[in-house]
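REQUEST ID: PR-0412
SUBMITTED BY: lab tech R.K.
PRIORITY: routine
TASK: structure prediction, single protein chain
INPUT:
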Amino acid sequence: MSHGQRDSRGALAAGALLFSIGPAALMVMPMIVGVYVDELGFSGRQAGLLASVDATGMFVASLLGMVWVRTLNWRLAAMLGLGGAVAGNLLAAGAHEFTLMLACRALASLGAGTAFAAATASLAEQSKPETAFGIGLAVETLLTMVVMALSAGIIEWQGIAGIFRMLALLAFVVALPVGWLPARSAKTAPVGQPPPSPDPATVAPVAAGLIGTMLFYAGVLGFWVYLERIGQAAGHSNHLIGTILAWSLAAGVLGGIGPAWLHGRGGIARPNLLAILLLMATVLAAVGKVTLPVFALSAIVFGALWVFATAYQAALIATLDRNGRYAVLIPAAQGAGAMIGPAAAALLIQGDEYVAVNLIAAAFLAVSLLLFRVAQRGLGPPGPVALSSNQPME
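STATUS: complete
OUTPUT:
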């Protein structure tokens, strides 16, 4: 596959749109969980299990991506995944029994996760993956805002079935440009030649990057899910907190555009490290009875930096992944961190005091920074190729 094919606008647009399908169901999960109980009569425990199936399906699909990413046509993988997502969501719209709903959500999440893995692999092929992932994250954030804005009205109009139909429609729409995706990695061995054996010198930095990504998301999500409670503990009104969280989400769009604006200036390692340091500062600034301006500034800057850093982390792993084998695991690392962070924070909360949330989030971020420092050593001596592009390395 030529450099131009990998970097075509069509490939970037298809990858960015497809990238948005992965977390779509998880973004509306807080609203869906309540409707599971109120409309379908499921217990709180059953609703929680259904939510965990959506998250687990994404994680498993990313792990399975390692099996097919070097052999299966990515367009075929994406279409099969999206077909599963459409079918699972449409079937869920008519399901009223718990076991059937569980099976439908498993099918939908595995399908969406497979498409998400194909999108991740495609964006990792771009010569400037930090820009590609930034655009993908910006599209994902915009779509999240639209889906969340529409969800309440759709639930009132059609109930939970309307949400699942909306997710099915979304999967259908993002399938339209799948033909523009690259068929497979340009880093893959030519047909007829055996794939190269994993190089320990490559595996170690990639592993450090993936574990760093996991701990980064543990810190970010551990803080994010309790941010509303932190604001309430500081004495701010629900209306103001909701407005600030909306602005924080909107700031993520700017964070995604940031790498495209920088256009390679600063490389792919340094912006990530700087963003993590600033994220630690914003998390620690929101400790205790913070004033409204400090809370608002921390939340909004946090929303932008979270997305900005994620783009560079994915780009770092994509650049280190010289054989196109491991970048597909990025969503699995992010998903594992998203499960670890809130659980770890919950264990440390004392009553209505949320200081421990800030401290554990900052600790996770600090350890992730150290791991990214280890990972960036795999880039080699500083230079235009090592630090800012995804061109094949010798």
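NOTES: Residues 200-376 form a domain with the Growth Hormone; Chain: A; fold (CATH 1.20.1250.20).
REVIEWED BY: pending
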